[in-house]
C-alpha cells in the first residue's frame, strides 16, 4: 500500500497585509494544513497584525518560512498549483479546486498551492513557474475572492480526502412512551371541549381523529410533551376577550 501524499504547502506571494496572512493561517489550520511559506511579504515578517487575525492558529504563523523568490519557496515541491482567475497568456492545464485536491492526494511528492498578492494576484512569471492553474468556478458578474477565502476553498477541498473530526452529534431526546402522549391528547380534548371547539357536535368524532393523527405524527419527547401541557394549562387560565 502506498504512503499517503504529504499535505500541500500554502505559498503566499508578496502578501500585502499582515491581517490577511493571519486569516489565511486560520483558514489553513481549520482544515489541517500547517505549512505556510511567504515570498517577499511587503511589510516584512513577523508582522504584528497577523497574530490577532489568525484567531489561535499560532502554530502556522510560528512555523512560517520566508523566501526571497517563488522559485526558492517551491524548490522542494514536485507539483505547483497557481491559483488565478486568468491564464494571463500562459498555456497550462486548468483544474477546479476539487480536481486539484484529488491530484494532490494522488501525487507522491510535495505539492504547493500558490496565491498572489491581494490587490493584483499572481503575475505572469509566477504562473509560468507553476505546473497547473487552479481556478474557482465563480459568478462571472462578481468574481471577487479575498486571499483567505481562496485559501479556505482549496484547503477544504484537500481536507475532504483525509479523516478530519466530524462535528459532534447532539443526541436527540428519545420519544416519549405512548401513555405520555395519550395524557397530552386528553388534556387537549378537555380544554378544547371546555372552550367550545368541537362544533358542530356531529363532527366531533372526525375532529378528534384528526387531532390524534396530527399529534401522534411528531414523535415528541417527554420534555416536548411536558412543555405542551404547560402551554395548554396557561392558555386555559388566561382570560380571553369575547
UniProtKB/TrEMBL annotation:
The region annotated as signal peptide is none
Which top-level group of life is the source organism from? Bacteria
- Domain named tRNA/rRNA methyltransferase SpoU type: which ranges? 9-156
The protein's GO terms of the molecular function aspect are: methyltransferase activity
What are the protein's UniProt keywords? Answer: Methyltransferase, S-adenosyl-L-methionine, Transferase
Q: Name one Pfam family in it.
A: SpoU_methylase
Q: Does the keyword Hydrolase apply?
A: no
Q: SUPFAM superfamilies from the entry?
A: alpha/beta knot
| Gene Ontology biological process terms in this record | methylation
Keyword match Transferase: yes
- Family classification: Belongs to the class IV-like SAM-binding methyltransferase superfamily. RNA methyltransferase TrmH family.
| Protein name, entry field | RNA methyltransferase
The species this protein was found in: Sphingopyxis soli
